[in-house]
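Example 3.2
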Amino acid sequence: MKLPELKEKLKSKYIVRVVAGVLTIALVGTGIGATAVFAEKNSTAVTAEADSTTDSSKDADDIADKLMDSVSLKDNDADKDESVYLISDANGNVNKTIVVDHLKNKDKKDTLEDASNLSDIENVKGKEKFTQSGDKLTWQAGGKDIYYQGTATAEPPVTQKVTYYLDGKEISPEDLAGKSGKVKIRFDYTNTTSYTETVNGEKQTVSVPFAAITGLVLGDGFENIEVTNGKAEVSDSSSVVLGYALPGLNDSLGIKDGDLDGDVNIPEYMEMTADVENFSMPAAMTFVVNASDYVSTDGIDTSDLDDMINDLKDASTQLQDGSKTLAEGTDTLADGLSTLQSKLGTFASGVGTLKSGLKTYTDGVSTLSGGLNTLGNSTGALVSGADKLNSGAGQLASGSATLKDGLKAYTDGASQLNTGLNQLNDNTGSLATGVTSLNDGAKKLSDGINAANKGAAGVSAGAAQLKTSIDTAKTGADSLAAGAKQVDEGVGQLTQSLSDMPETIKASINQSLEQLNELKVGKLFKTLGYIDTDKITADNVSAAADAAVNNAEKIIKFLSTSMNDPAPSATYSKIVVGLSQGKGAVTVYSAVNQSVTDSASKVKALKDGSAKVSEGASSLDTGLGQLSDGASELSSGASDLAKGTTKLATGATALQTGTQSLADKLPELTKGITSLVNGSNELVKNNDTLNAGATALNAGASQLSAGTQSLMNSVPTLTSGIKQLVDGSNTLVANNAQLNSGASQLADGTNQIVSGVDQLTTGSKTLSEGAHTLADGMVQFNEEGINKILDAYNGDLKPFTDKLQAVIDAGEEYQTYSAIADGQTGSVKFIYKLASIDAKADSDK
């Protein structure tokens, strides 16, 4: 292609129009080339796939490919075709970059070598695997083409800045949504590439000749649309604005103001103005391509300007031949339109399926909203249950405190009993001494009775000695009676404590388990597979506590996702503490219950010993009473000596019987007392363990009470989140009618497209008839256009052509955004997806 032809095509913006046509098809069909991009509204979750997901987008891809093939000035025979998707906010700031590469396996090789600096590489069309060494990739292609994608962070070669104005003042896109007034949107493009080329023997810096084409889909309410460096296409259903620019080309060619006349323009920006009511911009995209990929440079020869000018005549002949080729191409176009009609029928069917699917979706949204509203109405029961749990935890803490006090009273009683038994044990020596003295006294009494007849003096002496013996025996008897009384009191207190203590502990444990079951902790653990029942019982609380400790991560995740707990780790810790203390309480109950069982025989021994002591004391009291009577009678006077000695003899006999009985039972009494002492010592040994267990149980109950209080404090946050879900579902339901209406409009529009293709088929015949007339007009246009460009440029054409050649060379050197293997050729295009701007329902007019 000759220089004048290139400049004429630049003047007429031919390259730009080619790319703009591709972008228009892409916007209508939601697909570009062989790929489709899906983005969430917030433009944060984006994926690219090698195959289109709907028949409609595939048809659009086919149309785009046919249009590119029919208007391209240079075949794209690259080994690697790269599409770079840049997800941006409404101001043009890139948030994420996804690259899709197509490796063409022209020779059907088993392996394909490639180079790439992308991250997260994955095959998006097949199951072929690859190995990587640094930037080198080796694909097991098996004779097939490879489609793969990855992410990148490098700056793109062309950046864009989008600025919004309302009534002459700059405004953010968020604030512009829903506003009304005079709106201006300006796209400024910056070419960041730099190549050093030799021009007329000198090194000069030029940029890759990128063409940037921006398409905007506008909402309702746009009027009086004006576009600088572009055009607007307005219909009853939508408004589309297309703008173009060739950023950096003026600087690369060294063009200054005045070098070109008014008919030639190389734009660096695109700008649109309109009168708007309730502003919205549903879609905005920018398509950036390397112009060298669409311009054939074969045949350019800058060595002799005169030869190039003379070749213009030959170009006229070539144009005439081209018109014949154009006529033949119109026949091919007619065949393509027939194929398109068939595919549009399939597309129309797909639209019907979409419409039906949307109806199913909106019905599902309504069902979801009903369920969420039911959940919202149940928050009262949730609050009530949490309150009951909190109340029960408080009662557990109170009961554990009572248990702690009861155990303290029990251990104090055990200590007192131990003290009394040890005192009783100490007094057994005095008792033995008393019994010995009593036996001696009885013997002496017998001697005195025998000597009574010998004289009053002997009687008096015997009576005095008898009185002393009786006093000594009485002291021992009193000590024995006091010890027996302490034994009876201790045994009674011990019996009551042992009887009450297990039931008190058991009552507290049952109360705690009731509160845990009101919280449905058992049901939660059954759901997670840790226990087999909906209840937390004394038998399974240990297993539940162990499961809670061993499955922390799973429980925390379940609390976070299923119970919407804002602090699942804290709640988990409180559950673990409560279950662990419950486990400790059950352990304490088992120990106490076992202790009571073990003490039963010892308590029985205490009772038996106490009975024997009481029986001996009774016999001793009887004998001492009789002795006391005899001594009184003996002291009454010598005159009654005979009578007294008779009674004394009787008393002595009874005394001997009583002292003998006491002596016989004394070993058993001593053994019983020793058994009592040993048992009380064992009880006292467990006092510290019991008190420590009760203290630990009380501390755990207090922590559980604090945990349930924290749960109560979190209930308002949970109920607030449920309300937000309910409000969100209601919003979805509110949009159901609009979605169904949009699906109906899409179906109607599809029918209109089918009708339009029918009209286009008819028009293609007219196009064929006008092809020869076009050939004649093209000859005249090229000649006049060429002359205009030659006159428009006020300088030497030789340096200009050399610079233009350098720009084209720079474009041919730029073949990939990511990387490319040695010896391979590449082609790359950039698609910028901007965030949409939605109108506000309560817009400011």
